[in-house]
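Input record (one chain):
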Amino acid sequence: MDCTFSIEANAPGRIIVRVIESNLQYYAASISIRTYALGGYLASWSQLTYDKDRDDNFIGLTNKLYINFNSRSSPPGNAAGVRLLLTFMRANGCPPRWTPMTLDGRSQCVGVPTQNVYKFGAAQRYCNLQRSNLLISERDNIATVLQRANAANVWIGMTAEPSGSYSTYRWINNIRVAANHNVSCTGGCRPGSTTHRCVYARDPRSLIQIECGQSIRPACFMPVGGTDTFYAGSSAVRASGALLAGAVLLLWVF
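The corresponding structure, as predicted from the sequence alone:
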């Protein structure tokens, strides 16, 4: 079976594609999701490279998508396929269950879009699938933002540098945090260490730096309608989890 579906939302909307289930069965089977214009792929995977627990969403920045499904079953007639949930999102709005708010002087959306937990680097890449980044707040009080979004036990986009006994903090867009937001430390904050640490919010008023390799839910943010700017953070932090490595090809081409 080789099918291509053309999906179109009312302009200037967006389409959110959520993968509910993927059972391609045959090793050569594949699925791809790409934009209608320019041929840019949002994602593609095969039976060998899909993790059924990834809980992925993909948000297109245009109102048209192609979804191609290519599958063979063995023996013939043995069902194999995918289940996708398509949701409409306004270009000037937020995805369902995200909280709209003014953040750092701009209209933004803040959410915790998954119950799955990830290492810090993988959490950032998960947010990227939602057309967002891990939550940062350069000027506004991060506790207020977290409280409004009802977010707790989540990664935020803040890291602690090894220098100065981990007293220097940066957002993942490489901007130095103006104040330390009263971040506390749980073990390992020793002078002379060379390991970056990452910050999670146990609750809106309790920020804690821990090893980046621990697994926690991500708190994400995006401008209304989604972003095509994705922050990399430091190479040391990016290595703390590889959600997409060898699993999904993401080429953000618009």
